[in-house]
Amino acid sequence: MPNKPTYEKLKQRVKELEQSEKALKDSERLFSQMFEQSTVSTQLLDPEGNSIQVNQKFCELFGVIPEDMKHYNILEDDAIKQTDAYEMLLDVFNNKNTHRWQNSFDIALASESSGVKTTKPEVIYVENLSFPIVDDDGNIQYVVIQHPDVTDQVKANQTLEESEDKLQLLFDHSPVGICTVDLLGNFVTTNPAYEQMLGYSKEKLRELSFFDVTHPGYRPKNKALFQNMFSMESTGFKMEKKYIRNDGDEIDVSVHATAILDDKGKTRFGTAFVEDITERKQTEEQIKANLKEKETLLEEIHHRVKNNMQLIISILQLQKDYQDQTGSVNLEDTINRVRIFGDIHRKLYLQEDFTKIDFTKQIKDTLRELITAYNIKEENISLELDLPDYLLELDKAISCGLLMNELVTNSLKHAFTDKGVIRISIKRNPSGEIERIVYEDNGKGFRNSEQGFGSKIIMALAEQLNLTFNLNSENGTRYDFVKMVCDQIIEPSNKEILYVEDEIIIAMDRIANLKRAGYFVNDRVITTGEKAITYVRESSQKPSLILMDIKLDGKINGLEASLEIRKENPSIPIIFISGYEDPKHTEQIAAISNSSFLNKTCAPNEIKKEIDSYLK
Fold first, then answer.
1. Is the pTM for the entire model greater than 0.70?
2. Which CATH class is domain 38-154?
3. Tens digit of each residue's pLDDT (9 = 90 or more) over 528-539
């Protein structure tokens, strides 16, 4: 019988073994519970790669049952051998290293290769963690492989990447400029369209802020809107402004900025969509300019129509005076003169340019219409024309048209007994102005005593066109008109009235009326503002009153000429007579002392009354 101490030791040892066994069983039970209840797919392998145990999450993930995995060896799986994972597995089993990797896993392919049936023939994505379990001597007891399922995360990342790729594609190829800036306005990202718009490289823009490329005139407003967006007073803004390109050119842009918020709801970046609207702005400005031009043109046409009506009235009045003296009445000539106005206006309104007319065609049409009007056969009149292609301003076209009408009418009525020849030649100087007009016929000619009303009209029209002429009527009739070189200064008489008017016939009518009323009026009509200034400056005896048209030939108008005259002669009264009523002109006239305004269509007694208010 063993002694008592030995027995006690043996008993204690048995107790310790029982406790150890119980602890081991508890540990195994705990491990088994943890293994089975783990939310991560887990596989336990022996040192040779044979599957010992898989948990429930493994079975759910790969669609297998535990019994089918008992004969599975991971190192003999041909499907795994063909992947990068195989080398890592060998390193775990042979070198006791730990490896982590992510890969896609084709369950159907793996099932076919391993012979393990599956109920989930699909592709999944797993995060693999493989590590060895060794004993105290460093020998591998087990290899554990865990497979967290990251399929949803990978697919979400793929979707995000695809979305980002699409967004980047849109960003890179957008025809609209796009930029992102930080809190200080410094550029963070810019797309090619934005870079091309400003002429800067992507790298150079990273060194700038959007304030640097914004025109100084727009920076204060842009800064205020930008600060409001980053202080959360607004979520974005729209504005039109100007950029200054790298080459110094200015462009107009439309900016639509919006805030990009962080996870705390605060503005982190600002993104702007920028469109170059320079062409649109230029088009808008052109449209506005065209509208303004049309408005001005309509005002001008309105003025010209009134002016031409007054011109017709003046012609009729002059012819009436002539008929009162001679007792003869010739309405046919008057009708032809009025027809010139109507014909020129009709052609004017049929073309796009309302300011000029094809005068060469106008002369040819006038010749044809007059031959028809006087019942002359076309074959009886031979026309020899040397005419340049010539666009002429409306005022000069009417004056030239009337001049040709009088010349041709005289020839058709008085020069020919049967057949005849009419020759017309027009020459221009390099600046395009009429320099010479030669008109001649081979008719019977006439004596100076035979000159009538038509000749007076010819003289007036020539002067209005700034032409002087020589007349030869020995062998036929020849008018040689040439451009005036200088203007002769005619000294005014006591209390003389000076008339400044670019429409000579209107002035002739007014002058005749004023003379009949007993006024001294200079017969010389001044047609430009420059001539009026020179006349008054160089005359030893200044005129007592000036009747001044506002719209004149030349570079300065009547108002400007009057201001220049008043510098040296502040006391000369000036009555402005114009068919062009402009509120600005009315204000300017009101500011000129000792002056007043009358409409050109006013009656003669109104002019007389206004003159008397200054001279009597």
1. no
2. alpha beta
3. 899 999 988 888
